[in-house]
Amino acid sequence: MAEGTPDGLVVGSSREYLALYGSLMSCVGGLRRLGDTRGLRYVGPCTMQGRLVDLGRYPGLVLQEGLVEAELYEITDRAILDGLDRFEGYHRHNAGLSVYVRRRVRLREPDCHAWVYIYNKPYAGRPVIAGGSWFEHVSQPQG
After folding, report:
1. Of 32, 120, 16, whose CA–CA distance to 72 is shortest?
2. d(CA 64, CA 49)
């Protein structure tokens, strides 16, 4: 296994992965909101290119320069994507209606592709989350 590669990651396989960067991350207790998550298996931490914007109770990933910290999951049952799509407001056949769109992107670490939800609405004027970590952002004392 390559140095820095999470246990269970099989790069170049037919396996599919999902990267979660915000309110669904396990470190903020988010996946419990979905109920049945048997279609996902935690692999480890990951990073991807982009920036997080603060949308209030959750962040939005925008594809810009920067790094975002996330959690990587193997998709063991593709049916989980239907529930995630509903939760994220993704309309597969009408991107214009979608709050987020689901796209496969290449992660920085580990070196693999994963599905991510990219914010699909205007975000001008929204604060950028410094450091690219939603967990650190919500853990900071509010002043």
Report:
1. 16
2. 7
Kindly list the distances between the CA atom of residue 69 and the CA atoms of 61, 89, 125, in Å, as whole numbers in the listed order: 11, 22, 22
pLDDT tens by residue, 17-32: 999 999 898 877 777 7
Q: In whole angstroms, what is the distance from residue 19 CA to residue 85 CA?
A: 14
Residue with tokens 């004027």: 125
Per-residue DSSP letter, 141:
P
31 token code pair: 């996946």
Nearest to 44 by CA among 59, 23, 67, 27: 27
* Sheet of 113-119, strands arranged across: 40-54, 59-75, 16-20, 113-119, 100-106
Q: Which of 110, 132, 61, 112 is nearest to 90 (CA)?
A: 61
pLDDT value for 37: 79
For residue 69, with 0-12 CB atoms within 10 Å meaning exposed, 13-18 middle and 19 or more buried, which class applies? buried
